[in-house]
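Ligand: uridine-5'-diphosphate. Inputs:
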Amino acid sequence: MHYDYLVVGAGLYGAVFAERAKAAGKKVLVIEKRNHIAGNVFTDCIEGIHVHRYGAHIFHTNSDAAWEYINRFAKFNDYINSPIANYKGEMYNLPFNMNTFHQMWGVTTPEEAKAKIEEDRQKSIEEFGGDDFVPQNLEQQAVSLVGREIYEKLIKGYTEKQWGRPCNELPSFIIKRLPVRFEYDNNYFNAKYQGIPIGGYTALVERMLEGVEVRLGVDYLANKLTYDELADTIVYTGPIDAYFGYKLGALQYRSVRFEEELLDVADYQHNAVINYTDSETPYTRIIEHKWFEFGKDENGRDIPKTVISKEYSSEWKVGDEPYYPVNDERNQKLYLEYQKLAAEENGVIFGGRLGEYKYYDMDQVILAALEKSPE
Ligand code: UDP
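Predicted complex:
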């Protein structure tokens, strides 16, 4: 059997591409190294709770196209992400908004909050290089946006645990993912659409892959030549440096380890996400999965137990699961070198968080895959 496309990896990018290729009448084979589909959006059902096995995924987008597309495969609930930060027992609302500013400083108006931030910014201006400085790194960006105290209590510890690097060596765009609002609004994402697929992400990806041949537990790179012969075009969604045998050196990734516990209580923290923003607590956050679905099972009944996951961030090494690309200067430069090699690989499309070494959100992955898919 010869295929038009061999899709390597059954994560979101691969699934979207395969679905589109199938719809366009192409012959597609999907191979996947793990023994399940859905990549890192995979959810497992435990005691009626959809557990996000590779980290919490909250779908959010401003794109009509991405929203319309994903809704073909699942109904979404109206979950709104409102994480809370726990700094040594002090609780703050996220993202940074009037609730946070009030909790931190007792201010009650936007004007007072802005004045407080400006005061901190002024104090740091000299250290950052004078009056008209443009933030060069995450620390400078954060202090400019929310002031020194919020940076110290809610950003520094969390970010340094998450990335394993000092904030002044990290790119400023990471923190720009978080909105700052002078309104009383705890909605984490500035997004037109948001929600969690009812029934879990695995079921969603299953629906995408309906009618597509999928082989699990298959290591493409271990038998690359054999698999390459199967199709005209390869859609590779694994790590780009692994594809090239790390020949220019390894790109850096952050990995995550989850300590998952099934607890015999109905309510552990009553919020899906609580971030531990101090530097001493070894994990970055605790996810309590049932609250992504309002504590109910699929028949609308309250679930008597709960599953929590403590999230530990670590430096990736060969053999670990890569989660986050580290988009600092050094890695970005190396990635561009790999990208040049990739451009010379005829008949291979590199896609997704690992294939493009990008800190993609799910909607961006979908749009990128749609863009590359056959019509
Ligand atoms: N961040 C932070 N404090 C928090 C939450 C996030 O400083 O309580 C920063 C941190 O640098 C993190 C970035 O914001 O890497 C993006 O966070 P987000 O929750 O969007 O990341 P993800 O869910 O993709 O891990």
